[in-house]
Design brief:
Length: about 280
């Protein structure tokens, strides 16, 4: 296999490379340019890979897992068209794998760490989409903020962490990108020392491109705040909600050079807290 590993400060190791378009009968997408035709065919066996992968998620909307190939670990996610309505919606707009690909490219331009994309594909069966999937490099665990919450919420770290996450949100908003689900499970974190860390993003299923309205800003920031508080409480970590809200809001306002509307932010904080099924951890 022609993939190469390259050491980085974040992540610890990553397969890197440019993407190129490919096309098969009823299947098309983008893949790592260094893949040969045989390797492409191996990655296109989405069902076979998922059947042997270690399941990471299996829900109505997506099925995901971790698998190994030639000594490297990869993450695969298939988007499930579980209803006629879902299949019909897939006919319009940019397919989710390609939105993820665009988001990945935009994040790299902004020097934000993201998992290297290996393949984004769509397979059609006559008129409707049969399969949509993405494959990325799988990072070693612990991977997310949620998995390292005791470090992120520790004295001496929490203030810098909340400020950094708020600045990260402001940075992508300044470049007309909304992540769409900036919960602690979707924020990458690597601990560099007792006080230092590096952050990144992944899971761009809800990404949006274009001008970022005040409503979108407040909703994204509210998601950060409520998710952090929920993960802390789930792990029996005592946290002051007002301190979290104040730190995140102030840091975002300073980085974005715009004042979040307090009323809109409060509304989204209440809405997310009241509708847990719509905003799962």
């Amino acid at each position: 296999m022609t993939l190469t590993l390259e050491s980085q400060s974040f992540p610890a190791s990553e397969i890197r490379g440019e993407l190129r378009a490919f096309k098969r009968q009823k299947c098309y997408g983008y893949c790592l340019a260094s893949l040969d035709e045989t390797e492409i065919d191996r990655f296109l066996d989405v069902e076979g890979i998922l059947n042997s992968a270690r399941t990471a998620k299996d829900s109505l909307g997506t099925t995901a897992g971790i698998f190994s190939l030639n000594g490297a670990d990869f993450f695969i996610k298939r988007y499930n068209a579980y209803s006629f309505k879902r299949k019909f919606r897939q006919l319009f707009g940019m397919p989710r794998p390609f939105r993820t690909m665009r988001a990945t490219e935009e994040m790299l331009k902004l020097h934000i760490a993201v998992p290297q994309l290996i393949m984004a594909l769509e397979r059609k069966d006559s008129f409707f989409t049969r399969c949509q999937a993405i494959i990325t490099v799988a990072y070693p665990e612990p991977l997310t903020v949620a998995e390292q919450i005791s470090f992120a919420a520790a004295d001496g770290v929490i203030g810098g962490f909340l400020t950094s996450v708020a600045r990260l949100a402001a940075k992508i908003h300044r470049h007309n990108i909304v992540h769409g689900d900036m919960k602690m499970q979707n924020i990458l974190m690597r601990q560099l020392s007792d006080m230092e860390f590096a952050l990144g993003l992944f899971d761009f299923d809800g990404v949006q491109f274009g001008p970022v309205s005040m409503r979108k800003r407040c909703k994204e920031v509210a998601r950060i705040i409520t998710s952090f508080i929920k993960v802390c409480r789930q792990n029996d970590i005592q946290i002051e909600q007002e301190r979290v809200e104040s730190t995140v809001r102030s840091a975002y306002n300073e980085a974005a050079k715009i004042e979040l509307d307090p009323a809109i932010l409060k509304r989204y904080l209440r809405q997310i807290a009241a509708h847990k099924e719509r905003y799962p951890l």
